[in-house]
Amino acid sequence: MSNTTATTEQLGDLSATTLLRFATAGSVDDGKSTLVGRLLHDSKSVLTDQLEAVERVSASRGADAPDLALLTDGLRAEREQGITIDVAYRYFATARRRFILADTPGHVQYTRNMVTGASTADLAVVLVDARNGVIEQTRRHAAVAALLRVPHVVLAVNKMDLVAYDERVFAEIAEEFTAYALELGVPEITAIPISALAGDNVVEPSAHMDWYGGPTVLEHLETVPVSHDLTSCHARLPVQYVIRPQTAEHPDYRGYAGQIAAGTFRVGESVTVLPSGRSSKITGIDLLGKAVDVAWTPQSITLLLEDDIDISRGDLIVPSGDTPPTSQDIEATVCHVADTPLNVGQRVLLKHTTRTVKAIVKEIPSRLTLDDLSQHPEPGRLVANDIGRVKVRTAEPLALDSYADSRRTGSFLLIDPADGTTLAAGMAGEAFATAAEEAAPASDDEGWDF
């Protein structure tokens, strides 16, 4: 029978602990999976039979000690090649906090998976090999973390055992990365020297680096301040479904169901439906089959309105005094995640919350150069893993918040209408990029010309 090495006393009262979502990132062979495995193993969050399986596989390969990277690299191709390909999610807990961890790939061609893993993260752990220092992929992952507004970034300088635990090596890498990340607008950077293989400063303090007086990785994860209180944000309800039973018991019932993306809604509050701009008043809120007076994010609710308004899936219900701008012209920063390029003039679908509309890429004003954070003007296209500015014209008006104000309602996807492939992940507004240069008006396109 499976059993964990963690005891009830060690886990404590999990209902009273907070939740931290974090992602690991870094270049290939920097040791992300080993760090995650070490974190799980040393915090006693590994099932006994899982550890035994890892020990058997490691022994069959002639290893003297368990390869802890196998705790997260679950795909056969990952195990055979010794690399991480897919995002591996792990759930664990200590007495102080619960965690959802996303171990993301390090290869350049899998950077798109890092976007997936970091999109909901409160913290990103960026690993650097102490022998190699800050490289292009390190800069790319820092840029993605900044673009996705991850509030906390940890620089884990790994493999310190291979540089004789040299303080000077750590200091130089930390200084270079911190300067780069601050220029990107990352609000908080914490640098920690570690050896994931040996366990130095991962869960337990290292006996080899007495010059370092900061927290271990786990201690920082347990104590970093996080807030999931979205109730004070701009209230937004993307409509997923219109409920009309038309039964003898409910002949006139018309409710608008969805999950609150942010903020709070109250009975009696005046609301506006976008993009139509029609206003009404909330007469009732149904939550789990019961009527309530107030509801907040992330509850799934059904709103009842005073007036019979034409509302359908994809509409956005917001407080009348707090409406986002509505426009058919969207300017945003995007991470291009598809193998095929994104070209000026390309016809796409734009998915924002529960609404999907036709659109055209009117302009690509710039592409970010990762080395010096300069903007390469008018690249004409974006290829896989590029980060750039785009201007998109949609067939119908959309109500987007700035991504800086709301990660939920300020983000969108660009999709290939031919096969449904996700092309790019977009963040409305300026993000960390400099203001785009003034560009000449785009010429009319044939087909989807709005």
Q: What key phrases describe this protein's structure?
A:
alpha+beta, disordered N terminus, eight-stranded antiparallel beta sheet, disordered C terminus, single chain
Describe the structure concisely for a colleague.
This protein has 450 residues and is of the alpha+beta class. The chain has eight helices and 25 strands.
What is the topology?
Layout: H1 8-11, E1 18-26, H2 32-42, H3 48-60, H4 76-81, E2 88-93, E3 97-103, H5 111-118, E4 123-129, H6 136-147, E5 152-158, H7 167-184, E6 189-193, H8 217-223, E7 237-238, E8 241-243, E9 255-259, E10 264-266, E11 270-274, E12 278-287, E13 290-292, E14 294-296, E15 300-305, E16 316-319, E17 326-336, E18 342-343, E19 347-352, E20 355-368, E21 375-377, E22 381-382, E23 387-399, E24 411-415, E25 422-428
Parallel strand pairs: 1-3, 1-4, 4-5, 5-6
Antiparallel strand pairs: 2-3, 7-16, 8-9, 9-15, 10-14, 11-12, 11-16, 12-13, 12-15, 17-23, 17-25, 18-22, 19-20, 19-24, 20-21, 20-23, 24-25
Helix pairs in contact: 5-6, 6-7
